[in-house]
Amino acid sequence: MTRILLTGASGFIAAHILEILLKNGHKVRFTVRTEEKAQALLSAYPEYASNVDYVLVPDIAVPGAFDEAVKSDPPFEAIIHTASPFHFRVTDIQKQLLEPAIIGTTSVLKAAKAYAPTVKRVVITSSFAAIVDRAIGNDPSKTYSEADWNPITEEQAQENASEGYRASKTFAEKAAWKFVEEEKPNFDVATINPPLVYGPIKKETSTLKQINTSNERILDLIQGKYKDGIAQTAVFLWVDVRNVAQAHVEAAVRPDAGGKRFFLVAGKFSNQEVVDIIAKHYPEYKDVLPKERQENDGFPKDGVYSADNSRSRQVLGIEYISLEDSIKDTVASLKVLGA
To answer: Start and end of every NAD-dependent epimerase/dehydratase domain (predicted)?
Structure first.
């Protein structure tokens, strides 16, 4: 049993992390922005009431935002930091994407060093966005791994919200590794770098109007918004949220996970494959799904890049959920929410 701090607990991935932590017997303090979110999470796990508490952190971009959260008796042994913005509805890339990601990450690390000397591991949610190189395109000769870094510049980060998001994850992760190298705290760091994340949504943290960006695409499909044709796939790598959550927990407790990045990838996918899975398992949506089939099952004719997920399998013991099961379970969760 370990005492763990989980930041941003109402997020899509973090809500699954919280469930795993509690069911595995860990004592958890979580942070959320509002009392309403805190109570929604607590009400989902009444049987673990004695093992969970929370601290409100309304704005992660405020320096010192996590100072009070990391002070604990009994003390923490690990921190899982997931709090970071992921949406494209922004008007100010610097203030809405870059600063919350970078300042939020460094604030957690500074607070842990200053006020939580018992912490031995900090796990940070990063992204494939911190790995991918847009200049490579879909080059099928490329196999991405933890060795790769997105070479995005500060200037490119200001081009649009998509580039701003990729930059926010890249700069925040680099800031974390730099902090450990320069400050030499009592803890080490591990990062989890997933691409597009599908999988079931926790009803206690989401509504149909507030779901994660990747699952929003599936909701739009079953609501008929792509009836005239779905967009071409932009990112061809995916993973299920339950595997991502499991990876965070394993990275927090496995000694040999420290000092490593983990590229969490179940495999390749296309939007056309997602349509096909929905059509197979949910015939009631037949009339609202795209009628026209994409060429080559939605993949580029000349092929597409690959990913090396061997580290996640070997070090964290991840066994990946299939795309079919992930999409099937995602739609089932959306139906529970009223889709």
So the answer is: 4-260
Centroid of chain to Cα 231: 23
Average pLDDT over residues 87-107: 79
**Phi–psi pair at 143, nearest 5 degrees:** -120, 110
* CA neighbor of 2 nearest in space, from 105, 54, 79: 79
For the domain that residue 177 is a member of, what is the CATH number?
3.40.50.720
Residue 257 falls within a domain, yes or no? yes
C-beta atoms surrounding 291 within 10 Å: 10
Confidence bin at 324 (pLDDT 50/70/90)? very high
Q: Structural domain of residue 159, as residue ranges?
A: 3-198+238-265+305-320
Crossing angle, helix 213-222 and helix 271-281, to 10 degrees? 50
CA 83 – CA 10 distance, rounded (Å): 9
Rg (CA), the chain: 20
| pTM, two decimal places | 0.95
Q: How many CB atoms lie within 10 A of CB 181?
A: 9
The yes-or-no verdict on residue 255 having pLDDT over 60 is: yes
Q: Report the C-alpha gap between 129 and 302 in whole angstroms.
A: 23
Report how far residue 248's alpha carbon sits from residue 118's, in angstroms, rounded to the nearest whole number.
Answer: 19
Domain-embedded: residue 39: yes
pLDDT at 87: 52
Sequence-separated (6 or more) residues with CB below 8 Å from residue 314: none
In 3D space, the residue among 208, 197, 212 whose CA is nearest the CA of residue 246 turns out to be: 197
| Counted domains in the chain | 1
Taking the C-alpha atoms of residue 141 and residue 139, their distance in angstroms, rounded to an integer, is 5
Q: Do 116 and 67 form a contact (C-beta atoms < 8 A)? A: no
